Amino acid sequence: MRDHPQVHDQEYTLHDEQCLITRTDARGRIIYANPAFLEVSGYTQADLMGKGHDTMRHPDMPLAAYDDLWRTIQRGQSWTGVIKNRRKHGGHYWSLASITPVVERGVTVCYACVRVKPTRAQIETADSAYRRLRTGITGGLRLRAGRIVPGGLLARLRDWRASGIRARMLAWAGLSSALFLAAGGIALHGMAANLNIEQLALAAAVLAAGVCLIFASGWAYARTLSGLLNTATDFTRQIAAGNLGTPLAPGNPDDETGALRFSLEATRRNLVGLARDVHTGIADAPGTVAQRVETEDLRHAIEVLRIARAQPRPAHPAA
C-alpha cells in the first residue's frame, strides 16, 4: 500500500442518488471508472487507468479491511462494507461499497465495485471499528466479508441471534423442538406408571423422532430459503455490476420461489432490451449525442449499456 500524507478532514458527502462504479482486473488495476466516480474522487481517467485502488486509500482505513476484501472476492464471493477513500486533493468521502466478481461463462473476468451513500450510523460504526483495528485494541472484533463481527462470547451470541433468516429459522426450529420435547416428556412422565418397559421405550422413541422431524424440517426449509436468497442476491449484484449476460435458471412458476426467479430474469432481459434500444436510438439519431441525451433516465440507460457491452478479457491470476 502506498503512503498518502496529503490528507485533511474535509469530507465530501455523496448525494442520495449518486452511484459510483469502477472495474478492476484480477490484480486490482482499474480498467473503468464512471463519471460519477471521477466527479467525487477528483481524479481523471488518465490518473486512474491501470492504477491500483491503493491510489485512493485513506490512511484511516486499516489493512485488515483490505485483507478481508481480497480474501472474500478471491473466493468468488461479494464483499459489502463501508469504505473511507481519499480524494485527489486530500479530502475524503465515505461510501457503502459492494465489490462483486464479474463472471462470464463461469470465469471471473474482473471485479466491479458499486458505491452508494451510507447512513451516518453506518459511518460512525465503521469509523469506530476501523480505529480499533488500526490500534490493535480489537477486543476480538474482526471483519467477515465486510461485515463487522463483534468480539466476546455474549456479543457474538447477540449478533448470531439477530443475523440472517437462516439463523432465526434454526433458532425457532430448535425452540419448537425443545417445547415439543418438554411437553412430551411431561406427558410421558404422567403415564409412566401405567406403561410397561416396552411401551415406555416406544413412546420415548416416538417422542425423539418427533423432535428430530421438527428440527430437520426447519433446517431443510431454512437451507432452501437461504439458498434462494443467496442466489437472488448474487444475481442482482451481477446486474448492479453491469453484467447483464448471466441468465438465471428458471424455477417452478407456480410457487413463490419460482415467481421470484421469473421476475428477476424478466428484469435482466428488460434491461438488456432497454440498453439495446438506447444504443440503436443513439446510433440512428441525427446531430450530436449530447443534443439527444437530455434526461437523467436516458443517461443512466447509456451507462448501463456501456458497462454491459464492455467485454473484458479474462485477466491473469494475481501473483
From TrEMBL:
Pfam families tied to this protein: PAS_3
NCBIfam families, sorted: sensory_box (TIGR00229)
GO CC terms of this entry: membrane
Occurrences of domain PAS (ranges): 21-76
Coiled coil, from the record: none
Protein name in the entry: PAS domain S-box protein
Top-level taxon of origin: Bacteria
Keywords linked to the UniProt accession: Membrane, Transmembrane, Transmembrane helix
Regions that span the bilayer: 169-188, 200-222
A GO BP annotation: signal transduction
HAMP domain ranges (all copies): 223-276
PROSITE patterns noted in UniProt: HAMP, PAS
Keyword Zinc belongs to the record: no
